[in-house]
Amino acid sequence: MGNRGLPSLGLKGSRHIRVVFVHPDLGIGGAERLVVDAALALKRKGLCPFTAHHALPNLETWTQEKTTNQADCVLVNSHFTASVYKETFKSIKTSPSVLYPSLDFENFDKYESLTVRDVDLDVDSDCIFLSLNRYERKKNINLALHSMKLLLDMVNKDEASHIHLIVAGGYDDRVQENIEHYSELVSLATSLGISDKVTFLKSPSNKVKVALLRSARCLLYTPDKEHFGIVPIESMYVGTPVIAVNSGGPRDYY
């Protein structure tokens, strides 16, 4: 295997190319799915991808810095991640290149006219707001619920009757945080008095996810300092506007 087709990576000579994905926790999420898709695509091209799944519990920053410094080329997914890289790996003098993730467009195009009514979701609202994240505290889903409460307090009763929030995302009953945070969010919706205005979904299928994105009036993307965030890209691809926290990778979108 040579470096044909990869001139922009600056690889020299005829050495074999090995691509390493260092991701200690391949959970259920857009970024993790993208890693797997990219690895499979590289394999089909004849390259050698290596991944790590829960295999690096003692990988210290020093070790990461020394091994990363041996790479011919380092790619990161946003300018925010590039800044974190430079701040963390201070001894590495070269700057990483930014390569934005892409989508599997076929997964969206084949459901071009899909709506929530086509996937048997019992949500009869004209104005659906969508939060699509894993059930993890760092995803800041609480913000979506508090924002929903503020919106409902601002509009009249008739307008409120048309508004609904759907919170959907990766959920694994083997992960304690998923179990705990799901319960926390349900309790928060109840305490805010908006439980009848919120629907919670666990690990929706790709078909349901596309239906949600196409049916939503707007996507609420709440993580703070997210390194990239693939869900807003998916949302924009199907023409649904995004309201995102003004930090991290999402700042690269505009």
From TrEMBL:
Sequence ranges assigned to domain Glycosyl transferase family in this UniProt record: 126-253
Catalytic activity: an alpha-D-Man-(1->3)-beta-D-Man-(1->4)-beta-D-GlcNAc-(1->4)-alpha-D-GlcNAc-diphospho-di-trans,poly-cis-dolichol + GDP-alpha-D-mannose = an alpha-D-Man-(1->3)-[alpha-D-Man-(1->6)]-beta-D-Man-(1->4)-beta-D-GlcNAc-(1->4)-alpha-D-GlcNAc-diphospho-di-trans,poly-cis-dolichol + GDP + H(+); a beta-D-Man-(1->4)-beta-D-GlcNAc-(1->4)-alpha-D-GlcNAc-diphospho-di-trans,poly-cis-dolichol + GDP-alpha-D-mannose = an alpha-D-Man-(1->3)-beta-D-Man-(1->4)-beta-D-GlcNAc-(1->4)-alpha-D-GlcNAc-diphospho-di-trans,poly-cis-dolichol + GDP + H(+)
Chief site of localization: endoplasmic reticulum
GO molecular function: GDP-Man:Man(1)GlcNAc(2)-PP-Dol alpha-1,3-mannosyltransferase activity; GDP-Man:Man(2)GlcNAc(2)-PP-Dol alpha-1,6-mannosyltransferase activity
Secretion signal, residue range per the UniProt entry: none
EC number annotated for this UniProt entry: 2.4.1.132, 2.4.1.257
Pathway the protein acts in: Protein modification; protein glycosylation
Pfam family, one: Glycos_transf_1
Keyword list, A-Z: Glycosyltransferase, Transferase
GO (cellular component) term, any one: endoplasmic reticulum membrane
This protein's record includes keyword Glycosyltransferase: yes
Compartments it resides in: Endoplasmic reticulum membrane
Enzyme category, top tier: transferase
Bilayer topology: Single-pass membrane protein
Entry keyword 4Fe-4S: no
Protein task: Mannosylates Man(2)GlcNAc(2)-dolichol diphosphate and Man(1)GlcNAc(2)-dolichol diphosphate to form Man(3)GlcNAc(2)-dolichol diphosphate.
Family: Belongs to the glycosyltransferase group 1 family.
Protein name: Alpha-1,3/1,6-mannosyltransferase ALG2
